[in-house]
Predict the structure of PaaX family transcriptional regulator.
Amino acid sequence: MENTAAEVRARPQDLLLALGGALVLDRYEQPLPTRVFLDALRPLGVSDDAVRSTLTRLTERNLLTRHQDGRVASYGLTDRSHRLLREGRERVEATEPFHQPSSDWTLLSFSLPETHRDVRNRLRSRLAWAGFGCLRDGLWIAPGRVDVDRIVDVRAEVEGTLQIDGFVATPTADTDVARFVRRAWDLDALRREHEEFIRRWSGPAPQGLDPVALFTLHGADWIRLLRQDPVLPGQHLGEDWPAPRSADVHRAVVAGIEASAHAAFADLVADARARR
């Protein structure tokens, strides 16, 4: 893990969301002073200005609430972020996050005007998190049975202009499913992502590195890998597929640093609140 922090490229938003899901959710119901987030991300090379601007953007997206007490600003989770982070936690903490038990496939087609490009980008991000790959523009496919209504949470923002259809399908006997898989996902690139994750996070944790920063960075990197892996049926993957090893490495990292990360984060919170 010696060069892990330098190798992982995570946006401040991804780091803050990883921190929120791992260290804040269900533990700190009261808003936390800005200093907590500054102190948590500063060891990762994130500037204070970048943290503050990201907190503002997340507030504008109704993922954080902002509270002002004199000169001290604090931020808390919203109902929306509670729901999204809990949904994400289901897969983050899954026992077998890359095992696909179903032989069914979910197909989804959507249409959205160009004027809603930002909503389209968020919808595509949600689809990717749910395991969808794009067969062609507007037509997406995912292994297994996906609850489309659960992941499509943007309808209220587009005032009825979103047209979306989803259905579960079973391939016919003469369908070349492997061809669809290769069209929708780059399996060679996905294998490399798993192998790089294993290389980065294998072995003992480096001594002296802030446990909050390390735990947050690992969480963001793990979520990125989960977002990239659609959890395809094993018969469509190559020999010695590395995903199970990625899951083993992830569990080992969490077991090694989770307790110290929670303790160190509690110290950050206590110190920030004492300085108010």
Observations:
- The mean pLDDT is 88.
